[in-house]
Write a structure and sequence with these properties.
about 190 residues; 8-stranded antiparallel beta barrel; Porin; mainly beta
Length: about 190
């Protein structure tokens, strides 16, 4: 919780201190939506998630913010299933190429990724079930590309999570994000 508070405080302080302001857009906006996640490794199949991303317009083209994102990915076969969860707390940077209604952008996020994994293996013959839970926090970054049209947002993003053990790269994931932003419209 301390990490989240520190990250949000740093983003808000930086945004408040910045001397430049957007001439065309309201200062504050919140992005929210759902995502479809495709893991980088072979151990997991796919998953879903959410994101919440308050941002400040520093200029007409630059937005800074803080992101909370969660994704749950899994796989199953006849004798086992595997569920992995990733929750990230990150600082965000977006650069919009214009100020029109259709606004393409590029950007990146960097922050802390909290990882969790549950694996169950069992057999109906013997009625035994074994479970394993692994948790940890790692630094990561996520480049992205997308567009806003009015208040609708669509983005493609790849989350690189650093410091994973060999064979555990399934936490890296590509996501397709779709959502809306509230606030931040034209003045």
């Amino acid at each position: 919780m301390k990490k989240i508070f520190t990250l949000i405080l740093a983003c808000l302080t930086f945004a408040g201190v910045a001397s430049a302001q957007s001439d065309s857009f309201k200062s504050f906006r919140v992005d929210a939506g759902l995502l479809y996640a495709m893991p980088g490794g072979d151990a997991l199949d796919a998953g879903v998630g959410y994101y919440l991303n308050p941002k400040f317009h520093i200029t007409d083209n630059v937005l800074l913010g803080a992101k909370l994102e969660g994704a749950v990915m899994g796989s199953a076969d006849e004798d086992a299933f595997d569920v992995s969860a990733v929750v990230s707390y990150a600082a965000t940077f977006d650069y919009y190429f214009n100020t029109n209604s259709f606004r393409p952008f590029i950007g990146a996020d960097a922050g802390i990724y909290s990882l969790g994994n549950v694996e169950f293996e069992g057999s109906n013959e013997f009625a035994t079930i074994e479970g394993e839970i692994d948790l940890g926090s790692k630094f990561g970054f996520a480049p992205k590309v997308g567009f806003s049209y009015g208040h609708f947002d669509l983005a493609l993003q790849y989350n690189f999570i650093m410091g994973q053990e060999d064979g555990y790269d399934e936490y890296n994931y590509f996501s397709i994000k779709m959502g809306f932003h509230f606030g931040g419209g034209k003045k």
